[in-house]
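Thread: "does anyone have the structure for this chain?"

Original post by V.I.:
We have the sequence but no experimental structure in hand. Need at least a predicted one for the grant figures.
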Amino acid sequence: MMMQRLGRWKGLGIAGVGVALLVGGCRTTPVSAETPGVVIRHADGSTEITREVVFAQSRLTRWLRVRELRRQNTGHGLLAPGITVQSTYGGTLRFEYRFCWFDAAGREVAADTDSWKPVTLRRGESKALDSVAPTPEVTAFQLILRVP
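Reply from O.Q.:
Generated one for you, tokens below.
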């Protein structure tokens, strides 16, 4: 009986550490198979699953819909992603986002260059969350969304 209690506490501790790491910001490795996928419902009716968008709190998955994900490059060879989100929350939704950048080896690039940006949306409103990679070495990104 005592071993079962210890096992439960150990499991809760491991889960707590995982949540703390996710809420804390970006990682040192790019999106992996452990990152839950987010469904994108495009205007044309098609859907896509991506691991480039991460909701730090599960309640945000009920309040925000990802409507579009754009992966493009600038004329200077910089990755310039854009994600359009739409609020499904019944009132005024306040959240923050930031982009994390990764090189071809999966290492985070310029970790301190992108700060949390606040957003306020009312039910049904959409917003494009756009950014440009800090260097041409960036080949991948991750967008983190959280409630402050």
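V.I.: this helps a lot. Residues 12-23, 28-34 have pLDDT under 50 and may be disordered.
O.Q.: and Residues 63 and 89 are 5 Å apart (CA to CA).
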